[in-house]
Amino acid sequence: MEYRNSYRVKKVLTKDVVHKKLSGVCGGIAKYYNVPRLLVRVAAVCAFFMLPVVTGVAYIVAAVLIPNR
Protein backbone atom coordinates (compact mmCIF):
# COMPACT_ATOMS: atom_id res chain seq x y z
CA MET A 1 0.00 0.00 0.00
CA GLU A 2 1.19 3.44 -0.82
CA TYR A 3 0.10 6.42 1.21
CA ARG A 4 2.14 9.00 -0.56
CA ASN A 5 -0.65 10.23 -2.87
CA SER A 6 -3.58 9.74 -0.53
CA TYR A 7 -3.08 12.93 1.48
CA ARG A 8 -3.08 15.83 -0.92
CA VAL A 9 -3.66 19.25 0.52
CA LYS A 10 -5.51 21.62 -1.74
CA LYS A 11 -3.80 25.01 -1.75
CA VAL A 12 -6.12 27.98 -1.93
CA LEU A 13 -5.04 31.53 -2.67
CA THR A 14 -6.34 33.82 0.07
CA LYS A 15 -5.36 37.22 1.39
CA ASP A 16 -3.14 37.17 4.47
CA VAL A 17 -5.01 39.34 6.95
CA VAL A 18 -2.46 38.75 9.73
CA HIS A 19 0.61 40.07 7.91
CA LYS A 20 -1.07 42.62 5.67
CA LYS A 21 0.23 46.07 4.85
CA LEU A 22 -2.55 47.33 2.56
CA SER A 23 -5.04 44.57 1.90
CA GLY A 24 -3.03 41.35 2.28
CA VAL A 25 -2.65 40.50 -1.41
CA CYS A 26 1.16 40.29 -1.42
CA GLY A 27 1.19 38.30 1.82
CA GLY A 28 -1.34 35.86 0.41
CA ILE A 29 0.61 35.41 -2.81
CA ALA A 30 3.81 34.86 -0.84
CA LYS A 31 2.15 32.22 1.33
CA TYR A 32 0.61 30.46 -1.68
CA TYR A 33 3.93 30.18 -3.53
CA ASN A 34 5.97 29.67 -0.32
CA VAL A 35 8.33 32.62 -0.86
CA PRO A 36 9.25 35.43 1.56
CA ARG A 37 6.67 38.20 1.90
CA LEU A 38 9.36 40.83 1.50
CA LEU A 39 10.34 39.44 -1.90
CA VAL A 40 6.77 39.66 -3.19
CA ARG A 41 6.33 43.16 -1.79
CA VAL A 42 9.58 44.40 -3.36
CA ALA A 43 8.56 42.86 -6.69
CA ALA A 44 5.15 44.57 -6.44
CA VAL A 45 6.74 47.96 -5.72
CA CYS A 46 9.20 47.54 -8.61
CA ALA A 47 6.34 46.58 -10.93
CA PHE A 48 4.38 49.60 -9.71
CA PHE A 49 7.25 51.95 -10.61
CA MET A 50 7.70 50.38 -14.06
CA LEU A 51 4.02 49.92 -14.97
CA PRO A 52 1.96 51.95 -12.48
CA VAL A 53 -1.44 51.75 -14.16
CA VAL A 54 -1.32 48.03 -14.91
CA THR A 55 0.04 47.14 -11.48
CA GLY A 56 -2.43 49.40 -9.70
CA VAL A 57 -5.41 47.95 -11.54
CA ALA A 58 -4.15 44.38 -11.02
CA TYR A 59 -3.67 45.00 -7.28
CA ILE A 60 -7.15 46.49 -6.88
CA VAL A 61 -8.74 43.62 -8.83
CA ALA A 62 -6.81 41.09 -6.74
CA ALA A 63 -7.85 42.82 -3.52
CA VAL A 64 -11.50 42.59 -4.55
CA LEU A 65 -11.47 39.04 -5.98
CA ILE A 66 -9.15 37.12 -3.63
CA PRO A 67 -11.09 36.00 -0.54
CA ASN A 68 -9.95 36.56 3.04
CA ARG A 69 -8.60 33.64 5.00
TrEMBL record:
Statement: the UniProt record of this protein carries the keyword Cell membrane: yes
Subcellular location, record wording: Cell membrane
InterPro entries hit by this protein: Phageshock_PspC_N, PspC
UniProt entry keywords in alphabetical sequence: Cell membrane, Membrane, Transmembrane, Transmembrane helix
Membrane topology: Single-pass membrane protein
Main location: membrane
Residue ranges of domain Phage shock protein PspC N-terminal in the record: 12-68
Pfam families: PspC
Ranges that cross the membrane: 38-66
Name recorded for this polypeptide: Phage shock protein PspC N-terminal domain-containing protein
